[in-house]
Each structure stands twice: as C-alpha cells, then as structure tokens.
C-alpha cells in the first residue's frame, strides 16, 4: 500500500499528528481495509470489527465504536435484518450493495462511502460502516446512541410567563426546538464542522429573505478562518469570530431559550447552534439587547417599559455608584447635606484606609463571595453567599476595618448588577467598576466623568457584524427607538416591521 504522507489543506495538516491521515479509496480487500482502520484507531479499546455473512455466504465487515452506537438499534435494526436474509447469489458486489441499501433503507438510512478518510470521520461520529468483500464501496448506517439530558427550563433565563423548554447539549434536538417554532421552508439550517481534531458540528440558522445575505456570508467566512484543534463550547466561537475580541462588552447574544432564538431569526438575525453546548449565539446585536428579555414581549407593554428603564437605571448604578461614593467622600463632600457628611465622617472615623482602598477591598470581597457561591454545590453556594456576606460585613465593621456605608454601597451595587439580563454585560460592568473607582479616588468626579466618556467613545466604535453597537441612537434611526428605550405595543411593532419589509421589497425591485 502506498499511503499518502499528507493531506491538502490546513485541517489535514493538523491531522498529521494523528494516525488517521488516510486519503485513499476503499480497497476491495476486507483485510486491507481492516488493517488500515486498526492502524488509524490504534490503542482504541472501543473499536469493534465484526465479520458477518449476509444473503448466505457473502462476507461483510462491520466497523464501529462501541461507546457511540445504540446497542438496541444495532441488534434489531441492522444485525438481525442482515443475517436473517435468505441466501442469494449476486453477479457482482454492486448488486449486493444495492440490495443491502434496499433492505435496510426504512430502518437505518444507509449511505454509500468510497473514501477511507470519510469512513473514519463517520465512525468517530457514531455511525456503523459495513464493508463488502470485493467492493470498493461501503455502506454507512447512522445508529449512534443519542446521549443527552432531559429538556428543562434554563436556570439562568427563568421566566414567569413563557415557554419552559431550553436548549441542551444535543445539536439535533436543539435544531428541532427551533424548527417547531418557525414552520417554514425559508428557515435554513446549514451544517458546518469546525476544529481540526474535534470536528465539532454546528448549524448556521437563518431565515431566507429576512437575514441579510452579507451577514450570513460574513459568518461563514469567519467560521472558515478558524484554526483550532478543538471547539468544545460556544464560548470558543464567540471569541474567535467576534468583531472586537478585546472588548469587555458582548457583541453577540448568548441564550439557552429557543423562543428567543426564534424571535431573533424572525427579526432577521443569524444564530449558531453548537453540538455539545446548550448556549446558542445570535448575531448581530446592539448594546440595548443586553437590557431586554424575551419575557418583555409576553407581558403588558407598559410594565415591560418600566422594567427596561429600571434595568437602565440600575445598570448605571452598578457601574458608577461605588466610584461616585468615593469621589464625593474624598473630594466633594460639600455636595451632600451637612448632616449626611457628619454621619459618613463618624462612620469612617476609625477606618484606617482611604475611601478608595476601602471600596476596592469590599468590591473584591463581594466578587469572591459571588464566585464561591457559583462554584460550590447549589444549596451550599447560596448559604455561603448570603451568610458569608452578612458575617464578614458585620465583623469587618465591628473591627473598624471598613465602614457601614460602604457595606450599603457595595450591596446596592451587587443587587443592581443582578438586574442586567445579559450575563456578558453584567461581567463587563463588574470589570469596568474597578478602574472607575481608581479614577474617582485619584481625580474625583472629574475622573468619573472622564471614565464614563471613555466608555461611551469605546461603545460608539464597536460594531457587531457591521451593525453599529449603539444604533439606533447613533447613528440615529427614529423608527428603531420604538423597541429600544420603550417596549411599544405589538400593533406598532408589527406595523413598523411591515413597513421595513415593504421598503426592502422596493429596494430589491
């Protein structure tokens, strides 16, 4: 055998590190094929090579990975139908292949394979490949074991009113959850594999004639440029295809909710579903999506608008409240009433640290407690977060290490950050809070203003797949404000969508 030393392309270059760099046709000799596959899967104890006779004395060889194949489907759907057939004499192997496809078509959906590289890829994806003696073709049967957990409500996106189902780690089930909500052939699902070694499957989802073709093509191009050995979670993709990978602000929507993905697709967005991850990526988005929830559209529009304004207010407090406190107590005490000034001074009389250091200590402690609450088992984690904060705060105040007002400030800041629906935006606010405190402790309110201005300039320079991050405020698009600062009634939203659709149709003509 003359095995090729390499494979064309960047992915094939990666595969040279492994044994299955085979890019040749299937041999008509079963022994040769078996040798090639055993070399490719050397030291793989779960590789099964099984010789069977079909239609009498016709020798075949089934190859599969035991841990990925459904035993019941293998026994009942493939093995028994194969060995229980009456003896038939075939003129050639092609007739045998066609007869096997005909007999098994209704049960296991066979497909023809002619290349050893494709054969190996199908085996590692959980399929059974059946080789036929004297044939340069093989049949592949998809009978892989569907290992997945039960569908349940996403714990991070719980709602009072709305669907309770969330995505899981199974790509096919996630695709079905989206299909059930958008029943049209215009819903396109394109399969893509990324990762030289892991060959992770993902599905690009969009609605034809709604999603801009430029965005769809841009996503495909960025995925094609990924040069990684493995993609194990959607976070890899989010960072690798981002317009701005070094910004703390999220430029893609992450969600576990099929209804949110469906709503985004109807709006003309594009979604990525990744096998092995319950998190879907939606793009493009703007800054304002971080303060909206899918439940906003299930409740009364007046209450939803009030909630949005509440989120905007508390997001500002989560970002700026500690720095404003530091600036006022350090440089601008004349801005607050005299009685409050005396109260703050009395509370801080025994504290050995300046306000900036005191605030940083409490912020770091709060973030540590929050992280501990997340990493510990759920019942214990909640106890640690609540009791730990109370005990440590009380003890620190009594010991004179920190003052009581900073406990209130940090607690309000923590509660405010929990009101931000998008976890990526909440993380960005937590990160930026620390440099803002440093600016406040150094330059007072002038430092706070400068830091806020720098953040605003940074936001105006961001984009998500070509869409300005702060649109429709900058650049100004008045029609888009109906669903940004407020949640307009559905009649207005529907009318606006209809007008946009008519405008797009006229532009096409």
TrEMBL record:
<dbReference type="Pfam" id="PF03323">
    <property type="entry name" value="GerA"/>
</dbReference>
<comment type="similarity">
    <text>Belongs to the GerABKA family.</text>
</comment>
<protein>
    <submittedName>
        <fullName>Spore germination protein KA</fullName>
    </submittedName>
</protein>
<dbReference type="GO" id="GO:0016020">
    <property type="term" value="C:membrane"/>
</dbReference>
<feature type="transmembrane region" description="Helical">
    <location>
        <begin position="270"/>
        <end position="289"/>
    </location>
</feature>
<feature type="transmembrane region" description="Helical">
    <location>
        <begin position="309"/>
        <end position="328"/>
    </location>
</feature>
<keyword id="KW-1133">Transmembrane helix</keyword>
<feature type="transmembrane region" description="Helical">
    <location>
        <begin position="432"/>
        <end position="457"/>
    </location>
</feature>
<dbReference type="InterPro" id="IPR004995">
    <property type="entry name" value="Spore_Ger"/>
</dbReference>
<keyword id="KW-0472">Membrane</keyword>
<dbReference type="GO" id="GO:0009847">
    <property type="term" value="P:spore germination"/>
</dbReference>
<dbReference type="InterPro" id="IPR050768">
    <property type="entry name" value="UPF0353/GerABKA_families"/>
</dbReference>
<feature type="transmembrane region" description="Helical">
    <location>
        <begin position="402"/>
        <end position="420"/>
    </location>
</feature>
<keyword id="KW-0812">Transmembrane</keyword>
């Amino acid at each position: 055998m003359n095995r090729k030393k390499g494979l064309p392309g960047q992915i094939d270059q990666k595969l040279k590190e492994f044994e299955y760099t085979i890019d040749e046709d299937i041999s008509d000799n079963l022994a040769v094929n078996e040798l090639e596959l055993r070399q490719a899967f050397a030291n793989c104890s779960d590789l099964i090579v099984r010789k069977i006779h079909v239609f009498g004395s016709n020798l075949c060889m089934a190859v599969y990975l035991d841990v990925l194949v459904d035993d019941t489907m293998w026994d009942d759907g493939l093995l028994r139908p194969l060995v229980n057939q009456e003896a038939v004499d075939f003129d050639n192997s092609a007739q045998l292949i066609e007869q096997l496809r005909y007999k098994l078509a209704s049960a296991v959906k066979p497909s023809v394979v002619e290349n050893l590289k494709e054969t190996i890829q199908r085996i590692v994806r959980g399929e059974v490949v059946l080789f036929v003696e004297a044939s340069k073709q093989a049949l592949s049967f998809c009978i892989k074991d569907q290992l997945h957990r039960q569908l349940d409500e996403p714990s991070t996106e719980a709602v009072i009113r709305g669907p309770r189902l969330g995505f899981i780690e199974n790509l096919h089930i996630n695709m079905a959850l989206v299909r059930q909500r958008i029943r049209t052939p215009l819903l396109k699902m394109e399969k893509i594999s990324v990762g030289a070694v892991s060959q992770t499957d993902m599905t690009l989802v969009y609605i034809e004639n709604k999603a801009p073709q430029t965005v769809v093509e841009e996503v495909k191009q960025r995925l094609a440029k990924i040069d990684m050995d493995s993609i194990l979670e959607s976070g890899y993709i989010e960072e690798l295809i981002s317009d701005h990978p070094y910004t703390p602000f999220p430029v893609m929507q992450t969600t576990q909710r099929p209804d949110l993905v469906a709503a985004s697709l109807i709006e003309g967005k594009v979604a990525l579903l990744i096998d092995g991850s319950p998190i879907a990526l939606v793009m493009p988005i703007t800054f304002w999506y971080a303060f909206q929830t899918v439940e906003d559209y299930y409740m009364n529009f007046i209450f939803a608008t009030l909630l949005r304004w509440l989120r905007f207010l508390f997001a500002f407090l989560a970002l700026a409240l500690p720095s404003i406190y530091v600036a006022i107590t350090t440089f601008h005490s004349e801005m607050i009433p005299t009685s409050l000034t005396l109260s703050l001074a009395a509370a801080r009389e025994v504290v050995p640290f300046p306000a900036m250091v005191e605030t940083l200590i409490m912020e770091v402690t709060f973030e540590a407690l929050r992280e501990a609450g997340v990493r510990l088992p759920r019942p214990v984690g909640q106890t640690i977060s609540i009791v730990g904060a109370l005990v440590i705060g009380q003890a620190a105040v009594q010991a004179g290490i920190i003052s009581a007002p900073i406990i209130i400030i940090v607690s309000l800041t923590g509660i405010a950050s929990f009101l931000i629906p998008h976890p990526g935006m909440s993380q960005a606010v937590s990160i930026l809070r620390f440099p803002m405190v440093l600016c406040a402790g150094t330059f007072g309110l002038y430092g706070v203003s400068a830091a806020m201005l720098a953040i605003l300039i940074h936001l105006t320079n961001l984009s998500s797949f070509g869409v300005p991050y702060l649109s429709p405020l900058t650049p100004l698009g008045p029609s888009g404000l109906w669903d940004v600062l407020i949640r307009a009634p559905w009649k207005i939203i529907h009318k606006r969508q209809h007008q946009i659709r008519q405008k797009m149709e006229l532009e096409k003509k």
